[in-house]
Amino acid sequence: MSSAISPFSKVPSLNTTTVLIVGTHGVGKHELAKSLLGIPTPYSVQIRTANELPLPPLTGSNERPKIDLVVFMIDLNVRSSIGLVENAVTALDVHYFMGRVCFVVKRESYDSPVAMDTDALISLRDSYNSPMLYGDVKIEQDRISVTRQILNLLEVAAGYKTNISPLLIQATQKGHFILTDS
Questions:
Q1: Residue 8: inside a domain, yes or no?
Q2: Domain count of the chain?
Q3: H helix intervals, 56-165
Q4: Per the record, what is one GO cellular component (predicted)?
Q5: 9, part of any domain
Q6: FRET label pair with 162: which of 58, 120, 127, 169, CA 20 to 30 Å apart?
Q7: Contact present, 164 and 156 (Cβ < 8 Å)
Q8: Contact at 8 Å (CB) between 43 and 92?
C-alpha cells in the first residue's frame, strides 16, 4: 500500500497544522475550510481539499505537507457521498485511525428525505473507530460548533496538547457528537 497517506511520512512544520477535507463536490468542504481558517489559533492552519483519495501524484518540485487530520464529509442527501468516503478511507495508513480522522455528516434540512441508511453511517464509524460530527455547514451555529470540535481534534493530533495523545482522546470519547440547540 505504497500510495497510502501516512501521518508519519513527513517531518511536521513548526507551528503549522494541515487538515485534509475529503468529500463529494458540493458537500460544503470550502465553507468548512473558511470556517476553520476564520477561528484564531496559536498555530497556523493549512487546509487542503480533495474530492477523492488517493491523491494524485505530485509533479515537479511540489511537496505535500504533513497531514495532521483528515476530515471526511458525508452528505445524507447524496447517496454516492458515503460510497466515496468508504473508498477513500482505504487510501489512508491505519495509523490515521488512531485519533487523526473524523467524519462530518451534513444534511441540508431536516425536512428533506435522507438518501442513505443511517446504519451505513454507524457501521462506518464503528469500523474505523473515529468520531462522527453532525451539522450543516450552511447553518452558522452548526458550522461553528463543528469547526471548534475539529480544531480541538487537530490540536491533539498535531501534538499541541501536553500529555494528551490522539489515541487517549479516542479511547475516552464516544464516537458520536450530536449538536444540540442551547
A1: no
A2: 1
A3: 79-88, 118-128, 140-157
A4: nucleus
A5: no
A6: 127
A7: yes
A8: no
- 47 inside domain: yes
Query: Can you tell me the distance from the alpha carbon of 91 to that of 111, in angstroms, rounded to the nearest whole number?
Result: 34
What nine digits make up the cell of 169? 482522546
Measured CA to CA, the distance from residue 144 to residue 55 in angstroms comes to 28
- Domain-embedded: residue 10: no
More confident residue, 100 or 62: 100
**Residue 118, phi then psi, degrees to nearest 5:** -70, -20
Give this prediction's pTM. 0.85
Which residues does residue 116 pair with via DSSP β-bridges, in sequence order? none
Specify the amino acid at residue 129: N
Q: What is the CATH number of the domain that holds 155?
A: 3.40.50.300
Q: What is the pLDDT of residue 152?
A: 92
Nearest CA among 12, 77, 78 for reference residue 46: 12
Residues 108-117 have pLDDT tens digits of 656 666 667 7
Question: DSSP label at 103?
Answer: E
pLDDT in tens, 14-66: 789 999 999 999 889 999 999 999 999 999 999 999 999 888 877 655 678 88
